[in-house]
Amino acid sequence: MLKAGDKAPAFSLISDEGKKVSLKDLKGKKVILYFYPKDDTSGCTAEACSFRDNIKVINKKNTVVIGVSKDNTKSHQKFKTKYDLPFTLLSDESFEMLNDYGVWKEKSMYGKKYMGIERTTFIIDEKGKIQEVFNKVKVPGHVEEVISKL
After folding, report:
1. What is the mean pLDDT of residues 54-79?
2. How far apart are CA 116 and CA 110, in angstroms?
3. Mind listing the pLDDT tens digit for each residue in 110-147?
């Protein structure tokens, strides 16, 4: 599992806008990289909307927000439009980034085991090092906690 002080794994994925986004392109800015299970589900929507509602505070701290899930770009576009999300969503249909960041895990619900994304947020500093890791995120109050660590 990645921890504070580790070099953030490089990535290059297609965004909801059809553009390639790479970690190296973000050097010089802090990055809130949050992994979430699925577009347009209750917890994921609440988390995305909380980042949206706090985006001015986040941007003032020279920080960008990037959401990542395994949903395709078309799904991301609909989700982003529906909730007016002012940040980039990346599609990791190959699971490469999900595995590199250690968020693709065995989960269980109602006694059934399955693989899925464990809701996790990373703060990556201006030089590409992990500053903070928030594992097994509970949505209420999470964005405020992230902001307090910027």
Report:
1. 97
2. 15
3. 989 999 999 999 999 999 999 999 999 999 999 999 99
Token output for 22: 């790479």
Q: Which pair of tokens denotes residue 102?
A: 């250690």
Domains of the chain: 12-148 (3.40.30.10)
Q: What is the 3-state secondary structure (H, E, C) of 27-91?
A: CCCEEEEEECCCCCCHHHHHHHHHHHHCHHHHHHCCEEEEEEECCCHHHHHHHHHHHCCCCEEEE
Pick from 24, 31, 22, 35: which is nearest to 59 by CA? 31
44 is catalytic: yes
> What's the number of CA atoms in the CB half-sphere (13 Å) around residue 103?
28
One of 23, 26, 33, 44 is an active-site residue; which one?
44
The answer to pTM > 0.85 is yes
Residue 127 DSSP label:
T
Give the closest residue to 87 by CA, choosing from 53, 112, 137, 113. Answer: 53
Structure token digits, residue 136: 């097994």
The residues facing 148 across adjacent strands are none
